[in-house]
From TrEMBL:
Pfam families: ApbA, ApbA_C. It catalyses: (R)-pantoate + NADP(+) = 2-dehydropantoate + NADPH + H(+). Residues 179-301 form the Ketopantoate reductase C-terminal domain. Pathway: Cofactor biosynthesis; (R)-pantothenate biosynthesis; (R)-pantoate from 3-methyl-2-oxobutanoate: step 2/2. Residues 9-151 form the Ketopantoate reductase N-terminal domain. Belongs to the ketopantoate reductase family. It comes from Citrifermentans bemidjiense (strain ATCC BAA-1014 / DSM 16622 / JCM 12645 / Bem) (Geobacter bemidjiensis). The lineage of its organism: Bacteria, Pseudomonadati, Thermodesulfobacteriota, Desulfuromonadia, Geobacterales. Catalyzes the NADPH-dependent reduction of ketopantoate into pantoic acid. This is 2-dehydropantoate 2-reductase. Its EC number is 1.1.1.169. Keywords: NADP, Oxidoreductase, Pantothenate biosynthesis.
């Protein structure tokens, strides 16, 4: 498992998976592979993925053809995670590290329940504005991957190896001291911006320019902070200000992954966002009326698309 042959398998060749796949492919086409079955497999095999106008013929294996990788990156939507966990089983060997870049606070535990938490690193993708339209993905800002062990007072061997891989591939990254806090910070952001953008059909530029939209994001994010504090997670009102610094970096015409889902008529991650806030709020005795309203409104939007 030398540095020059560090094999990465990606499950989920959508906005994030295509971007990270393209960067790893640029570094070494032999060392990156997607896993997909059925029609997804055939589409990827025939068309590859297109990122910022360039086509990438990244290898694709059916779940039963996959072989043990050094790193498995999980980049599917929340409601596809169980299927993805099953489909990646052959890629997970005794030395494999699994890194989810998904939004939300529970993908690591769900993957760990299947493969053992000792195989899992915590991860998230911050500040990327990847837009998927059909098979083509564009982005202006790559942002960075925050990843690591649950706590990172000093870096472990496997974290250093992946940091080195990301350096070679040109994937900006950071290893924060407290990954649980980082996951909640990102979760707070997504509860605010993904849901409000999807409800209003608003780009990042439109959200930046609308005090009313920002007010709605703030109230939704404050409910996450209240739940986080009740759960002894180190999140505070100051983190809302940190989010606006990230928003300022995203392209004006960019769209959240949830708005992309609504516009493409796909199921959204609303259960993972407002749904989880409502559930955790209920357990901690924290009222969450803003997320209740967002949940109901977004479910109505989903039901119109299904009809
Ligand atoms: N887009 C963004 O800018 C960001 C997204 N995120 C988060 O990252 C995660 C992924 O988001 P994003 O990349 O936007 O999502 P996309 O919907 O663009 O991509 C997900 C991909 O996973 C594929 N997929 C689903 N199930 C399987 C499976 N069993 N095997 C193989 N492939 C599968 C889907 O295929 P198909 O289309 O055929 O269903 C799709 O191509 C989400 O949690 C999102 O919230 C985080 C930061 C930024
Ligand atoms: C923060 C944001 C909005 C962009 O990276 C995101 O995580 C998403 O689109 O899901």
């Amino acid at each position: 498992m030398g540095e020059s042959t560090y094999k990465t398998t990606i499950i989920g060749a959508g906005a994030l998976g295509a971007v990270y796949g393209s960067l790893l492919f640029n570094m070494n086409p032999d060392d990156v592979c997607f896993i997909a079955s059925g029609e997804r497999h055939d589409r990827l095999k025939n068309d590859g993925v297109t990122v910022n106008g360039r086509r990438y013929a990244i290898k694709v294996a059916k779940p039963e053809e996959a072989t043990a990788a050094d790193l498995v990156i999980v980049a599917v939507k929340h409601h596809h995670l169980d299927e993805a966990i099953a489909d990646m089983s052959k890629a997970v060997g005794s030395q494999t590290v699994i890194l989810s870049v998904m939004n939300g606070i529970d993908s690591e535990e769900r993957i760990g329940a299947a493969y053992g938490m000792e195989k899992v690193l915590y991860g998230l993708s911050l500040g990327i504005d990847a837009l998927r339209e059909g098979g083509a993905v564009t982005y202006k800002n790559l942002g960075r991957i925050l990843f690591g062990e649950r706590e990172n007072r000093e870096s472990t061997e496997r974290v250093r190896r992946i940091a080195s891989l990301f350096d070679r591939a040109g994937i900006a990254h950071e290893v924060p001291p407290d990954m649980v806090r980082s996951l909640w910070f990102k979760y707070m952001i997504n509860v605010g911006v993904n849901q409000v953008s999807a409800l209003l059909g608003a780009t990042y530029g439109a959200l930046r320019n609308s005090p009313e939209a920002r007010e709605l994001m703030d109230t939704a994010m404050r409910e996450v902070i209240a739940v986080a504090v009740a759960k002894k997670v180190n999140l505070s009102e100051d983190d809302i200000g940190e989010w606006y610094k990230v928003l300022a970096t995203l392209s004006a015409e960019g769209k959240t992954s949830m708005l992309q889902d609504v516009e493409a008529g796909r199921k959204t991650e609303v259960e993972m966002l407002a749904g989880t806030v409502i559930e955790l709020g209920g357990r901690c005795g924290i009222p969450t009326p803003v997320n209740r309203k967002l949940f109901d409104d977004l479910k109505r939007i989903e039901s119109l698309q299904e009809g």
